[in-house]
Amino acid sequence: MSSYIEPAANVSEAWLRTLEHVNGAGGQAVNVITTIRNPLAPETDGIRRAVDDVLSTPRKTVRVQPVETVAATIFPKDVYMDTGLTFEPQMTSEALKALDASATDLYECYAEMLPILTTDTANRHGTYFGRMISWPGKTGEGTNQLAARIRHFRNARLRNVGQRNLEDIAIAGEAEFLGPPSGLQVYAANDLREYGFPCLVHVDLTLYQHRINMAATYRHQYLVTKAYGNLLGLSRLLAFLAQQTGFEVGELMVNASFAEAERGNYTKAGVTELIAAARLGA
Question: pTM to 2 decimals?
Fold first, then answer.
């Protein structure tokens, strides 16, 4: 039975409403749709603190990473030197050069980091951001699909096009491209592993009323250890795309084909305590 979570104003409330619903449904659910109306809205400190407190304690049954570490697999905020500039058709050549340089530096720095990142067991098949900027994501010499998306959106901005749905991020990609990249490939069709990376299998970008809206599909969403960081990383990726193209940020929607409250790792009582602490801080 699919579930549509009431749209939330920010990442924190969206995460909490989703966990509350899935936990109330018995700890697991299919086709759970979470929507954030304003992905750039400030987080709710009390909710974020409750998540950080839980994730600060190691677990024997699951590898626990901080929220920021999970978010950085989708968009490495700390590697991006934000100029504060936003693309405009009339911007000066100096400003455009600085904006482009900030994106180029991000790509190059991350590409240099990839060989080190992939030595970690959790990243042995690459990272999401690595696949976006250097497909297939294990080295820094692949196809930069994110840059291609930005070029397409900028062309639309220059032509004053405020609506288009041609910027799909493919569900399944191939290891080689025969032509221009067709999307941000985060999942390979020839990847036959049943578990593990990647859980994110599809991202779609839709331009509507001069806003970039993002829809992401996860085949498995771990609501305690991963979901908050995933929502945060996707929000930051959306903000980056908006800044680099001059469009406004629209809504973020995430569909989890299978969502679980991780009672096996944290127990039913532990998840309930987390929810209570987060709701108290909301």
Answer: 0.91
